[in-house]
Design brief:
Layout lengths: L5 E4 L4 E3 L9 E5 L2 H5 L1 H24 L2
Antiparallel strand pairs: 1-2, 1-3
Length: about 60
């Protein structure tokens, strides 16, 4: 397994190594190219999960 870190560039929509674009323009690091290529999907899944948790928290708070 490689110790290289990979990033997804939001500006160019590409996977790149550590010598890529500035940090503000990319997501990561990820452990491999394949995971970095799924960065937008991973971000969407995490956002949806956080939204569900927020909704559950609001519902619990309104019943007390």
């Amino acid at each position: 397994m490689s110790e290289q870190q990979w990033f997804y560039c939001l500006k160019h929509h590409t996977v790149e190594g550590p010598e890529g674009c500035r940090a503000a323009d990319r997501l990561g690091p990820y452990p491999d190219k394949e995971t970095a290529a799924r960065a937008l999907e991973i971000a969407r899944e995490r956002t949806e999960q956080a939204d569900r948790e927020d909704e559950e928290w609001r519902e619990r708070g309104s019943t007390r």
